[in-house]
Amino acid sequence: MQWKAVKFLQKQDSGVWFVLFSGLIFRLTLLALPSFTSNDIYRYLWDGKVSTSNINPYNHSPDSVVLLALRDQLIYPNINHSYLPTIYPPVAQFFFYISNLLFGSSVLGFKFLIFLSEILSSLLLLQILQNLRLKQLPSRLATYFWLPLPILEFSIAGHIDAIGVTLLLLAIRLILLEQVKSAAIAFTASILVKVVPIVLLPAIFIRFTFSQTSRFLATSLLTLLVAYFPFCTAGTKMLGSIPIYLDKWSFNSFIFTSIYMLTGSYTVARAACYTLLAFLISIVASSQKEQKIDFVRALFWTLLALMLLSPTLYPWYLTWLAPLLAIIPSRAVFWLVTTVHFSYWSILNFSQGTVFTDPFFVKIVEFLPFFLLLGWEIKHCDGKITKIDYKFLE
Fold first, then answer.
1. Which residues contact 163 (CB under 8 A, 6 or more apart)?
2. Does any domain span residue 394?
3. Is residue 169 part of a domain?
4. Does residue 306 surpass a pLDDT of 90?
5. Distance from C-alpha of 35 to C-alpha of 302, rounded to nearest angstrom
6. Residues 147, 150, 153, 157: what is their CA dihedral angle, to the nearest 10 degrees?
7. Is the separation of the CB atoms in 19 and 142 below 8 Å?
8. 327/58 Cα distance (integer angstroms)
9. How many CB atoms lie within 10 A of CB 15?
10. Tens of pLDDT, residues 150-194
11. Residue 312 has what DSSP assignment?
C-alpha cells in the first residue's frame, strides 16, 4: 500500500507538507497505545526516576536494595533485565531526567517528547534533501514518514532511538553546511543517546580536511567530558551494561547466526563479524568523492553494514537507517525495514511465557529476498554498491 502511495506522490508538485503533516498525524494518534512489542520505555522511566532522586543511575541496578524505596507497581515490575545497570549513555539519561521532571512516570509524557523529536526530524530531513538538491521530495519523504517501522517503534514503543536519529540528522545537516564544531556537538550527542553512530566516524573524517577533523575531535572530546561529568562518581561503571551487551547478546542476525552454525563458536562468530565490519567501514568511507551525496551514501552503507554484521538486530535498530532511505533509495533496504517486524514472532512469544527462541526460518523471510535484491542492485550499478542511487520505484 505504501509502495503505491509513493508512486502516486511522484506525480505531485506540492505534496511535501501533506506527507509531513500526515506522517505526524499517524504518529500523534498512536501515542496513547500501550507498547506491546517492547518494554524498554519502563527502563527509561526508571532511570529518570532514579536521576531525579539525586542517585547516579550507573551505580545501581533496579533490583538493588539501595533503590528499594523507589519501587512501585507501574514501572519496576515491567523493567527488563532488572539485575543489570542501565545501558543508556548520558544524553539519553538527560532526556529521561527531563521527562520525569515534566511528566513524572507517565509513559504518554515520554512518548510526547519522542513525538516532538520526530517533528524536528521531519524538518531536518527536508532541509537535507533540499541541500542535496534532490528531486521527487514528496515520494522521498514518504519512504520514511509513512514507513511503518518508525511509527511503530517511536510512537507506540517510545524508543529513545528517535532522539538519537534527530541528533544524527542534525549532525548530517551541519556537516553538509561545513559547520564543524556544531556538527561535532550534535554527532557526539547522538552517540551519547546510543552508540550506534560511532561507526560513521571514518566516513566523517575522510570527508573533512585535517584541520576540520582536529576541530571535530577536540569539540567531540569536550562534549563527552561535559556529558559524563555529572555521572563521574560512578567511575568505570559509567559504561553501564554496554560491555555485557556486546559480549552476550545476540538476536535476529543472519550473518552472525550463519557463522555460528558453521563454527559452533560465539567467540569466532563475533570476531568474524567485527573484523568484516571494520573492513567494510574502511572501504565504504574511502569510496567518497567530492559530491555531498557521496558522503550521505557512505553513511547509509556504513549503517547498513553495522546492522547486517551486528550479532543483535532488534527492529528498532533499523530506525537509524530508515531516514537515509529517503536520500539513498534501495529496494533491498526497503524490504529489510519492512519485514524486520517478523522478528517480533520470537519477542511476543517470549513475552507470553514461552521459552525464548530465535528461529532461522524468520531470518530467511527477512534476509533471503534482501540479499537477492541487493545483488540485483549491485549488478545494475556496474558492480559497485556505492553507485546505487536510482530514482525510487522507477
1. 91, 92, 95, 113, 114, 117, 193
2. no
3. yes
4. yes
5. 30
6. -100
7. yes
8. 38
9. 19
10. 999 999 999 999 999 999 999 999 999 999 999 999 999 999 999
11. B
**251 three-class SS:** strand
C-alpha cell at 348: 511476543
Q: How many residues does the chain have?
A: 394
DSSP 82: T
Total of domains in the chain: 1
Question: Exposed, middle or buried, 383 (CB in 10 Å: 0-12/13-18/19+)?
Answer: exposed
Residue 354 φ then ψ, to 5°: -85, 165
CA distance 150 to 391: 23
Residues 18, 117 contacting (CB under 8 angstroms): no
- Nearest residue to 387 (alpha-carbon basis) of 239, 284, 282, 233: 284
Helix (H, G, I), strand (E, B) or coil at 38: coil
327, containing H or E segment = none
**Which pLDDT band holds residue 391 (cuts at 50, 70, 90)?**
very low
In a domain, 392, yes or no: no
For residues 107 and 251, give the distance between their C-alpha atoms in angstroms, rounded to a whole number.
26
Measured CA distances, 157 to 23, 37, 199, 258, 322 (Å): 17, 7, 25, 30, 16
Distance of alpha carbon 335 from its chain centroid, rounded?
17
318-331 confidence digits (pLDDT tens): 999 999 999 999 99
pLDDT tops 60 at residue 256:
yes
Question: Please, are residues 151 and 26 in contact by the beta-carbon 8 Å criterion?
Answer: yes
Q: What is the DSSP secondary structure assignment for residue 310, as one 8-state letter? A: S
Residue 211, number of CB atoms within 10 A of its CB: 9
237-246, pLDDT tens digit by residue? 999 999 999 8
Sign of CA dihedral 313, 56, 197, 157: positive
For residue 336, how many C-alpha atoms fall within 13 Å in the half-sphere facing its CB? 29
Torsional class of 358: left (φ above 0), alpha (ψ -120 to 50), beta (otherwise):
beta
User: Which cell goes with 206?
Assistant: 575522510
| Gap between the Cα atoms of 220 and 184, Å rounded | 5
At position 288, the amino acid (one-letter code) is: Q
Residue-range definition of the domain harbouring residue 341:
2-387
- 366 within some domain: yes
Any residues with CB less than 8 A from the CB of 171 and at least 6 apart, and which?
Answer: 183, 186, 187, 190, 197
Residue-by-residue DSSP string for 311-322: SB--GGGGGGTG
